[in-house]
Every structure is written in structure tokens, then in C-alpha cells.
Amino acid sequence: MRSRLNLPTQLTLLRLALIPVVGYSLSASFPYHDQVGAAVYAAAAATDTLDGEIARRRQLVTELGKFLDPLADKLLVITVLVILVSASVIPAWVALVVVAREFLITGLRLLAASQGVVIASTPWGKSKTLTQNVMLELLILERPFPVLHGVAIAAVALAVTATVLSGLDYLWRYRRFVV
Question: The pTM is what?
Fold first, then answer.
């Protein structure tokens, strides 16, 4: 068990532990709750980049990490999307596009894995992650800082575009598993 709980996996577990903190911060009404939520979200998102880099560089990739990392990413993003939709910060269709793409690509990865193929991250996939994180940060911070509204809307457009294009890219690259 000790070897599976290496530093990258511990960072992933930290990200999972931060999800309720982000959710509470964004849903609560204590002073500066949105700023706290944005800071915790940024820290959680940073662990995603960090754990992957460490795992690859130090050859610490584990089966547990491969399972938990994408799960933590999706739960973090979906948690924030649900809160922002329920607070009428973004329309539900934006969340639907993001969640549908995640389910679609996860299904594609499962199909490929059943045939012994691992679908690695692509540049479009990395762009999707970055633009979604920026979008969510700006949408969170727009609540206490309305001056960010225009930039946040632009970030939504960019993130939705990157999300759709990355999904299409994966489907095209790995169409042999779909057709």
C-alpha cells in the first residue's frame, strides 16, 4: 500500500479532499467566500499539473493514480459547474457541454482500454483543461468582482470551443473504437 501512496497519488488525494472545501466555500456566505473558493480551486487545479509531472518524471505512475487522477479532475470541475449553474452564473448548457465531453471521452478510453490501448492526453485535451480552469476561476471571481464579467464571458466561449474541439479531436484520432 505504501508504494501506491507516492507523492503524485497523495497530491491527487489532496485534490479530492479539497473538493468539498471548494464546494462549501462557493456555496456559503461568509466574508470573502468566493475569493477563498477561487484560491482553493486554484490550489486544487495546480495539484493536477503537479502530480502528473512528478509521476512521469520520477516514474511513479501507478494504477491507483491512473484511476484517481481523472476522477478527481472530473469531480472538481463538475462540482464547481453545478454550483455556478445553480447560482445562475452560467447557463446549464455550458455545464452540459463540459460534462457530456467528459463522459464521451471516458467512454472512448474505456473502449480502447478493453482492447489494450491507452489513450494519452493530447495537446487539445491539455488546452481544454487549461481553458476550463481559467474559465472557472474567472466565473468564481466575477461574483465579487463584476468588472471581470466581459473577460469571464470570453473565457466561457474559449473553454467551450476548446472542450468541443478536444472531444472531436479524440473521436477523430480514435475513431476505430467508435465505428
Answer: 0.91
